[in-house]
Amino acid sequence: MKFAVLRFPGSNCDQDCLRTLRDNFGASADPVWHKETSVDGYDAILVPGGFSFGDYLRCGAIARYSPVMGAVTRAAARGVPVLGICNGFQILCEAGLLPGALVRNRGLHFICRPVHLRVTNTVNPFTRAAKEGQILRIPVAHGEGCYFADDATLDELEQKGRVAFRYCDENGAVTPAANPNGSVRNIAGILNQQGNVLGLMPHPERACEERLGSTDGTLFFTSLLGAGLASVS
Amino acid sequence: MLDPQGVATAGAMKHLGWPGNPRVRVGKMIEIEAPGATPDEEQLHAICRDLLSNPVIEDYTIEFEDR
Fold first, then answer.
1. Which residues of chain B are within 8 Å of residue A148 when distances are taken between CB atoms?
2. Which domains does chain A have, with CATH numbers?
3. How confident is the model at residue A233 (pLDDT cuts 50, 70, 90)?
4. How far apart are the C-alpha atoms of A101 and A96, rounded to whole Å?
5. How far is B2 from A228, CA to CA, in rounded Å?
6. ipTM entry
7. Test mutation, A90, A104, A105, chain B, max B CBs within 10 A
8. Cβ contacts of A128 within 8 Å, gap of 6 or more
9. A33: CB partners within 8 A, 6+ apart
């Protein structure tokens, strides 16, 4: 399985993603510059975190018009898994591959700390190795991670099971106090209609080694790589 | 929708003695100069809709000014 890790001017988690894929999972992973017009031959695409184009205009607003995004849109339509992390999530929303938008955190602060997530969908390529309701501890690092969408969109996301993660406390309770950034309905990550595009604000690639404080991020990559599934089958 | 910048700005205004509870929303103004060209209004709307604003969270208006 071969991964493409997109690289825009201002991406800064591309190396983290590449290192995690290669060193922690022995996977084949290439950086793909944003001017590329094809992602053919890749089995999964990671849109990493960072500050693409300096967050000018709006987070992700310029990156979504980079040539590679046309290729990503076509690949997503073919069913290729696309994982957008942090700025990657913002880019996927701006590109219209996911609904809603990420706006300035409630409280205005940049937040950089571990949070707890409740897994609310396990029938997708990214969390199929997880158990429904499993609680993950994964870091966030963002200033504009407050998820917003209108009520009709939110209702549809919930009815179709497209909310992938919610911010929760360490016991798994989804409460206002456990919501780090003011996201509507504590939403931390969502799926597209087909279930092959996932965007989330937390950084699973930063939670794949004990010495980083958590290995809960590994389930994203074991899910994608098809490993570790025996436990749920 | 919540506008945290507006809420923070309103708080500062009250601190400076503004009476009551002001409701403040913070947006942005983008100036476009088009020397020697007559902007196509349809194209302007497309640019506003597809690039300069995000319809999920923002509205826009266009004003023309002769220089």
1. 1-2, 56-57
2. 2-225 (3.40.50.880)
3. very low
4. 10
5. 41
6. 0.82
7. A104
8. A122, A223, A229, A232
9. A7, A68
